[in-house]
Write a structure and sequence with these properties.
Elements lengths: L8 H10 L3 H7 L5 H4 L3 H24 L7 H6 L23 H6 L15 H13 L8 E5 L3 H19 L12 H17 L9 E8 L9 H5 L16 H10 L2 H7 L12 E9 L2 E9 L10 E2 L2 E2 L5 H13 L3 E6 L8 E14 L8 H14 L3 E9 L1 H8 L6 E10 L5 H5 L7 E6 L12 E15 L2 E9 L4 H6 L5 E2 L2 H5 L3 E11 L10
Parallel strand pairs: 1-2, 8-15
Antiparallel strand pairs: 2-3, 4-8, 4-9, 5-6, 7-8, 10-13, 10-15, 11-12, 11-14, 12-13
Length: 529
């Protein structure tokens, strides 16, 4: 085996005698050739046996030329057969014979617990691919992830300490970072097989993830001694079923002293009876983001579901009317809706609409043409007369940030139908047209105090234009800073907004209707009809 050197022979011998699989032996010998790990298990075992045998024969040949002191060969003759059974220090070597290949395969590795054995075989790869294909995902590449039992880290440490001691005896250095990580070796083996079976390349940046979760119940208590040695590493968490997470175990292994570790755990680790279990084979597609603008024409439709104390107040919402079509077409598990501000249930959104974005979680379908998006937009618009959608398009996660950037610096234009208790003439409201950059102090409105913190917010009314209707009604067109509470600016909210239309007109004023006429956010891009 060309990737192994003379210095690796004691490591190979130590690990094979301890019940370590050939691939883990290569890892601890710091072999970085990906192709070598892909060789069949039986071939690797045979190669390692030949490596030990060849090196032993070379050493024996050298010993025949030594007259004094007596060489190993002379001492071996007294034993008859078994000349291959001594190491360079005269200790007995247990070199597995080629005839034991099948038995070696059946023995579960004392380090990887079988992950680099059974779970690298074609049958398991086909099982994973059957799960992927049955899930009916649309993908052009994949990323493969593995969740390993936390006790594997304990076994790796025990094996490493054994190898480290062997190398120290030989006066050779060994850094733990030089050892090939189990996950890395496993992916070297499994990636080409999955890629061939699925017909797409493995790509670390792919949004489609295939994951396997391994467990080994037989040895799950092996890391529990660490909780006594390093109690501060194992703290309960609400979202964790056990404190013995892989990261907690790794953290404890970094803190515990070698001598303390060796008091609690055998080195090298013993061989288990059973293989790991592949508990779960899961697929997950990265989120897809859809953006657009919506118009709301109903004064009886909330933006999001209106539910109070578990009771639904209105049968639908803007969010639901849009998302139900997207969920069906993208075949997603769930969604998250966001928008550039929100309007009250009784407020219409007119003009070019309000920008919105929907995150579709774990979608099965991800590729849509421009024409397909147009048809989807039309389906949404045909389904209800309460809303209309425009500029529906696929966007990136990063692009959604533009919708929220400088939100309070943006402006919004409104049209408010206002009533006054005292009669008015045109001249009574004309002065409003001349007011520019009116500064307001708005204490959190009473109607939203249950969901917004109490604070005084400074807002600007940039311009106003009045439109007289009759002695008790007029329409006011306003351009205001985003985040301004327009209803409260009209009626004053019991003096919580100052100044307000009532105080400016020196009479009681109230708002009867409110429309959002424009949301001045230049996103998402306008699409041609």
């Amino acid at each position: 085996m060309s990737s192994l050197a003379e210095k690796d022979r004691p490591i190979v011998q130590l690990l094979l005698n301890a019940g370590t699989c050939p691939r883990c032996v290569l890892r601890f010998c710091c072999v970085g050739s990906q192709m070598l790990y892909r060789h069949p298990h039986k071939d690797l075992m045979k190669d390692l046996q030949e490596f030990l045998k060849n090196n032993q024969e070379k050493e024996d040949t050298v010993c025949l030329d030594v007259a004094d002191p007596p060489c190993k060969r002379i001492r071996l003759e007294d034993r008859g057969e078994g000349a291959d059974d001594l190491n360079h220090n005269g200790a007995i070597l247990q070199i597995p014979s080629s005839d034991d290949g099948n038995a070696a395969m059946e023995k579960v590795c004392n380090v990887c617990l079988g992950i680099l054995q059974e779970f690298c075989e074609a049958d398991f790869v086909k099982k994973v691919c059957q799960k992927v294909n049955s899930a009916d995902y649309q993908f052009t590449s994949f990323v493969f992830s593995v969740s390993l039992p936390p006790q594997l880290s304990v076994r790796e440490r025990a094996a490493w300490l054994g190898v480290k001691q062997q190398m120290r005896n030989l006066g050779l250095p060994l850094a733990k970072d030089d050892i090939i990580q189990l996950k890395e070796a496993y992916k070297w083996i499994i990636h080409p097989q999955l890629s061939e079976e699925l017909g797409v390349p493995a790509d670390g940046k792919s949004l489609f993830e295939v994951s396997v979760v391994f467990a080994h119940p037989e040895t799950e208590e092996e890391c529990h001694f660490l909780a006594t040695a390093c109690p501060d590493c194992f703290k309960p968490a609400k979202n964790k079923q056990s404190v013995f997470t892989r990261m907690a175990v790794i953290k404890a292994l970094e803190k515990i002293k070698e001598e303390d570790f060796l008091k609690h755990f055998p080195c090298p680790p013993s061989s288990p009876k059973n293989l790991c279990d592949a508990l779960e084979i899961q697929c997950n597609n990265g989120a897809v983001f859809v953006a657009g603008r919506y118009n709301k024409y109903s004064r009886n439709l909330p933006q999001t579901p209106w539910i109070i104390d578990g009771e639904r107040k209105l049968e639908s919402s803007v969010e639901e009317l849009i998302s139900e079509h997207l969920m069906a077409e993208f075949k997603a598990d769930s969604f998250n809706f966001s928008s550039s501000g929100r309007e009250d249930v009784d407020v219409r959104t007119l003009g070019n609409g309000r920008p919105f974005a929907i995150e579709l979680v774990n979608p099965r379908r991800i590729c849509f043409t421009v024409e397909e998006m147009k048809r989807l937009q039309q389906a949404i618009n045909d389904s209800s007369d309460k809303i209309q959608v425009r500029d529906l398009q696929l966007v990136t996660r990063e692009a959604i940030g533009r919708m929220k950037e400088g939100e309070e610096e943006k402006t919004k234009t409104y049209s408010a139908l206002i009533w006054t208790d005292k009669a008015i003439e045109r001249e009574d409201i004309a002065f409003l047209d001349d007011i520019k950059e009116l500064k307001l102090d708005q204490k959190t409105p009473l109607r939203v105090l249950h969901r917004r913190p109490l604070a005084v917010r400074c807002r600007l009314i940039h311009t106003m234009r009045s439109e007289y209707i009759d002695e008790h009604h007029f329409r006011l067109h306003l351009k205001a800073q985003a985040g301004t509470y327009i209803k409260e600016f009209v009626h004053g909210d019991f003096g919580r907004t100052k100044p307000n239309i009532g105080s400016l007109l020196n009479r009681t004023a109230d708002i009867l209707e409110l429309d959002v006429e424009s949301v001045d956010v230049d996103w998402p891009p306008t699409l041609a009809d």
